[in-house]
Amino acid sequence: MRKKLTELTAGRLRELFHLDTATGVWTRLVSRGRHNRWRVGSVVGSATGKDGYRQIKIDGRNYLAHRLAILYTTGEWPKNQVDHRNRKPDDV
């Protein structure tokens, strides 16, 4: 039986990370990992996958950082397709 994934909320996202809206850089608000390997203040997100879009792993699931930015700033998931203005997928 598969475990049902709960949808990430803006509240949960804001508990875990800070988004600097001027630079697009995401940082941790909570230390995670074995021996707190990922410390508070460390930059998160990596450009993985064939398309090169920046991803952030939250509660075992990967999310596209540019979609998370909409959730973080508006409190709601984007209803339409979201892309970078400059069309650079790994841009912060």
Which residue ranges are poorly predicted, with pLDDT under 50 across at least 5 consecutive positions? none
CA radius of gyration: 13 Å
Largest sheet: 3 strands, antiparallel
Distance between the termini: 38 Å
Write the element-wise H/E pattern from the N-terminal end onward: HEEEEEH
Q: Strand-residue fraction?
A: 15-25%
Percent of residues in helices: 10-25%
Instruction: Give the class from helix and strand content and strand pairing.
Output: alpha+beta
- The overall average pLDDT, rounded, is 81
Layout: helices, strands, pairs:
Elements: H1 10-16, E1 17-20, E2 25-28, E3 46-47, E4 54-58, E5 61-64, H2 65-74
Antiparallel strand pairs: 1-2, 3-4, 4-5
Helix pairs in contact: 1-2
Task: Give a short synopsis of this structure.
This protein has about 90 residues and is α+β, with helices and mostly antiparallel strands. It has helices at about 10-15, 65-75; strands at about 15-20, 25-30, 45, 55-60, 60-65.
Walkthrough of the structure:
The chain is of the alpha+beta class. The chain has a domain at 12-74. The chain has 2 helices and 5 strands. The protein has helices at 10-16, 65-74, and strands spanning 17-20, 25-28, 46-47, 54-58, 61-64. Strands 3-4-5 form a 3-stranded antiparallel beta sheet. β1 and β2 (25-28) form a beta hairpin. α1 crosses α2 (65-74). The longest helix is centred in the C-terminal third of the chain and has 10 residues, at 65-74. The protein is globular. The N and C termini lie far apart (38 Å). The model has no long low-confidence stretch (mean pLDDT 81).
